[in-house]
Specification:
homodimer, about 675 residues, Immunoglobulin-like, 4 domains, six-stranded antiparallel sheet, about 20% helix
Chain lengths: ~675, ~675
């Protein structure tokens, strides 16, 4: 519980040479040449949370900053960083394969994910070491990382020479004791984040980027996206069907057909399909359902928004539409004003198609008058749209949460989750685990399945990801589309709803401490598993995949209990489990108190019930955090929140105030002991 | 026969605005910004054949040069060229898939071929249009081409807008009427080559690059590479085995084990495996067999060459060896002197491993003191090594021919053929057809087969490619390794040997007229087939692939005969053929006279026999070219050659002198009529 353990300490004692400056507590920066503006933190308008950084424990680097090579050559800026023989390296973007990045080359570019480790939805140039530090390249140009590979002729230490003619140990890629990273640009801002642990280094990164995104509470419920050409009536019918069948529903997402035209779009309501947007939104709002609108940023020439933007577009079209130059302040405001005027009552957006390479978007050489070329703009376009939409909602003092298909560094504070056109379940879970190493959130949405088993297993994973979403854009699948597993699917969705108070608290830790809600094993204890992860401080999830009847789970240090039964299952060991289809492998650290909604149906109802069931695992005295605020405004940023430590004893719960102006919880507690 | 038809004409009449300059007859250049030196023609030290260019027919562009957009932006130089609705576009490097490049994006970079159209052994930034012109970007930086795709907001003509919500004709990649190409560099040299035909535009390109490579005659025979760790005695035994079994052999290639060490290497003879290199070479030379040495350019630190090169290496190692900075004049000379001193009597080299991306070679940001960064140096490293080796042989007035795994534009005159670690037979034939659009030569070598049928079909293709090579580096395969097809394989090899006079003449046309010896259908008549091609003026090859018992062949205009029988098989039509395993689908244009060796055994014996059998097809009066020179020196460049037109009538051959100081052929003719 980082929230409690934070201790104010002076920054690291030794002063490295003048190349390096401590820009925030425990965060060092060196500048090579002149940075190609905007940097990533510029693009995301990230404001570091200095006080929270100052409250962190002090870390120590395993190398001297003076030993880091910083070089500007004709076309490149390069950094050369020592790498200990036993260090494990993790991160380098929203990766969908593996966790170990120790020996490899990574060309980090925004793209829709296809294969490999290079073209990613979120290519955050950030890696973290098991030795308890992280390195972040604060540049919006594409980056190249050579991790433990690629020896320089002048490197002090190099592996032994071998003769391929005769030596069977000859290595076709000799290892190196360095990470080298480069950018084709006039300069580069290199940021080194100290620990003491790898998790602490990631926390520092997130706090540098403004702290993690704090969603409105409704965003943690269940999302459903209706088919592209659905009418208002179709959508209302569908919402009623959820209610009738007893499936929870918190957010409905509308797909391209809500607009008069799409690809490129108008960003205006189709009068044909949505004759009365305001009435439509009110009807859903009355049921406690929020509406999210799909859009891509490309504007059709004959539309109102196109006229308003004047000449503030990039040089190249996307599907023949203009790409607004939203780094330009006027264009940014025009887009904000248009959204504000045209979509009152909408809770947020799904920003599509900001992740194509030049196959879908503009070429590298495209020009944007605000400064960046096309290559650079592709790296940050998703970030710029997230930021401008967040800013619009901030001015309304209303929290938003949305989806986006590309992001980058500097964006931890932006309230959007990433989704993808890929659909490999195992890769989706890997993406969950790597998203936290990229300073982002992943939505392991479900869309379709080829069997009831797959439908259940995917739904269970979706319900244990930051955003739990069914995206029926293409084929109109419903939660009940596989009737034989209706109850099992509903159980997963209701489990999700019940966990909202716990998840909301985990997000508060993300916002205040930088600790990500989804925690990969690499940050928990240096593990390389990509098929299990922790949610918040106390839960361990180990999703099942279609066709599997058993799997292994590695339990970290401490005792672990089954979530549902409380049964103790092991400690610091690998176990093999054989869960039935209706069982979700979800475990709780013994001694944890997990706050849940007592009667989960939807978030709106959960909030209004003001009833929290605290699940206490394995011991008489359990503890856990509970965060509370108004669930929807930015008032928490001014102190209007309460963070409490819950302490259970038999059937009692004691809530100790830790922080915030709310000194007592507004809710009723009940305890269930599972020991 | 371009050789005859050349007419001196004035260059195109209209003077475009000052951006464009006619640098050679029918070749226009525009300079955007300042070119990032060296250009490709600089790297290859190409000297244009101005007189031959002046002798070409005049071409006309389908667009005005003034309508070409030339732009320098912050980081890129871009050219924007009109594209007619009906134009077919071919080229863009040594492609292994398809011929049609009309709608696509190409990022041309040197790499070992894996898949796609981007990373190529030879990424020559050159395309040719069916409208009879070509465009060449004379830059050694990686290039990006957007062909018929990617509309600018300010383009005058764009396709109609469509609404994806409702219009089924909505196009996810709307076509454009432009080719846009760019380079991330301070400038770009754009070269437009006129026709009149697409073939003429390619001829102009090759003549701009110094004319095609003229191999020594021995290089057109049969090559065999021995296993990596073979000793001198092993190699001699193998050569004897060829002789004993009656298989022709002209060149033996030695693989890494000839060196004291490899990967990185010493470039010195292993005393252990080759105790007496000079005696070894003499023994082979006495049999008329040349020796080719494998090497990669990377130098092991503890070696003599490493010492001699001093600090003239790139910043990064390759397999821990130094990468000589051979753009530096002193380094280039050091490498040349070392080769000259250490390997007297060797006929040429196989330059391996110059095609890796940063996975095998150095990173983009590597530094070479001669100027280029690693990104640029990877694009030209193969070219630089080819050129320095050619230059060394030129100074000895001895022709060489070798193999190389990467090349680029500006290299048509360099006597090397490309090979690859890939091994898809169909891709190999596609590469044959595309090599001529990249100004290079392809070696469709054989290495192994999983059946006698495959062995035969691959051998037949290999024997109809610029270099006919069996590369037994890895597993020691011999031509006779599949005993049931021994005679069929031998037939293919002897057919190859018999064709050497015809092939040699085709190469002379390449050197003097720029007309490539292997002619893709795209250049012959705009066809898009990649599984058939012409060899020289008169032969049409249509290789068979394993598992096929029949195929279609498209016969271009004119009548066509079977090569072996002379049987007329059709004209200007598609035919379906069902060749037996021992039949090579090879056709001859009726009216052609094909000069062949009468008693093919090996090139050395063919030369000494001075006996040419002229194969006359389809008509009483047939004609064809015959080129003659000393077969081994550069004296032909000073006029010591003879180009003759052969004219047959019944059993007589008349040879009319066309060019060169040799006015009568030195050989005996016989005619065989196949009509």
């Amino acid at each position: 519980m980082h929230f409690l353990l934070g201790v104010v300490m002076a920054s690291a004692g030794k002063e490295p040479k003048s190349d390096w400056k401590e820009i925030q507590p425990g965060i060092w920066r060196a500048q090579i040449g002149s940075a190609d503006k905007p940097t990533l933190t510029d693009a995301g308008r990230a404001v570091a949370k200095s006080e929270r950084l100052a409250a962190m424990p002090q870390g120590k680097l395993p190398f001297s900053l003076d030993s880091v090579g910083l070089k500007k050559s004709k076309n490149f800026a390069t950094v050369h960083i020592p790498l200990g023989k036993d260090e494990k390296i993790f991160g380098l973007g929203l990766q969908m394969k593996g966790a170990d990045r120790r020996k490899g080359i990574y060309h980090l570019r925004v793209d829709h994910y296809d294969q490999g480790n290079d073209r990613l939805h979120v290519p955050t140039p950030l890696y973290v070491s098991s030795a308890g530090y992280a390195v972040f390249l604060n540049t919006s140009r594409p980056t190249n990382f050579y991790v433990g590979i690629g020896n320089r002729l002048d490197d002090q230490s190099r592996p032994p020479f071998r003769d391929r003619n005769t030596d069977r140990k000859w290595d076709d890629q000799p290892p190196s004791d360095w990470v080298e990273a480069s950018v084709e640009a006039p300069g580069l801002e290199v940021i080194v984040l100290t620990g003491p642990t790898a998790m602490d280094a990631i926390r520092r990164y997130n706090l540098l980027c403004g702290g993690g995104a704090m969603p409105p509470m409704w965003a943690l419920g269940f999302w459903h996206r209706t088919p592209s050409l659905a009418t208002a009536q179709n959508v209302l019918d569908e919402a009623n069907e959820f209610e009738k069948r007893g499936f929870p529903l918190d957010v409905i997402g509308l797909e391209p057909g809500w607009q008069t035209r799409s690809y490129p779009g108008s960003m205006e309501w189709s009068k044909e399909r949505f004759p009365d947007p305001s009435g439509f939104l009110t009807k859903l709002s009355d049921k406690g359902i929020k509406v999210n609108l799909w859009e891509n940023p490309y504007v059709a020439p004959e539309t109102d928004l196109f006229q308003k933007l004047g000449n503030k577009f990039g040089s190249h079209t996307v599907w023949l539409g203009g790409a607004p130059d939203v780094l330009d302040k006027k264009a940014r405001k025009t887009v904000q004003d248009f959204h504000k005027a045209k979509h009152p009552g909408v809770s947020g957006y799904k920003i599509d198609e900001v992740d194509g390479f030049d196959v879908w978007l503009w070429p590298d050489h495209a020009e944007f008058k605000s400064g960046p070329d096309g290559l650079q703009m592709r790296q940050i376009y998703g970030v710029l749209w997230q930021e401008l939409l967040l800013d619009m909602y901030k001015k309304k003092n209303e929290r938003t949460f949305g989806l986006v298909r590309a992001s980058n560094g500097g964006a931890s504070h932006l309230p959007f989750a990433i989704y993808s056109d890929t659909y490999d379940h195992r890769q989706y879970v890997t993406a969950l685990t790597s998203s936290s190493l990229a300073g982002t959130l992943w939505c392991a949405e479900i869309r379709s399945a080829s069997s009831p088993e797959e439908w259940v297993r995917r739904m269970q994973s979706a319900c244990l990801s930051p955003i739990a979403q069914l995206n029926a854009w293409a084929d109109g699948t419903k939660p009940w589309s596989f009737p034989t597993v209706n109850e099992t699917v509903k159980e997963a969705m209701l489990l999700r709803e019940s966990l909202v108070p716990y998840l909301y608290t985990a997000f508060a830790q993300y916002a205040m401490d930088g600790t990500p809600p989804i925690r990969p094993m690499s940050l928990v204890d240096g593990g390389t598993e990509t098929d299990q992860y922790m949610i918040g401080d106390s839960l361990l999830a180990a999703p099942m995949f279609t066709g599997e009847t058993s799997r292994t789970v590695r339990l970290p240090k401490g005792q672990w209990c089954e979530y549902t039964t409380g049964k103790l299952i092991g400690e610091n060991q690998k176990i093999t489990i054989k869960p039935d289809l209706n069982q979700i492998p979800l475990y709780v650290k013994a001694g944890s108190a997990i706050p849940t909604f007592k009667n989960p149906t939807s978030v709106a109802k959960g909030i209004s019930s003001k009833a929290i069931l605290v699940r206490a695992y394995g011991r008489l005295a359990c503890s856990g955090l509970l965060y509370e605020d108004d669930g929807r405004s930015f008032n928490h940023e001014k102190g209007d929140f309460g963070m409490f430590q819950l302490q259970t004893s038999d059937r009692e719960v004691e809530a100790t105030h830790l922080a915030g102006s709310r000194t007592t919880p507004s809710i009723q507690f009940e305890v269930i002991r599972l020991d």
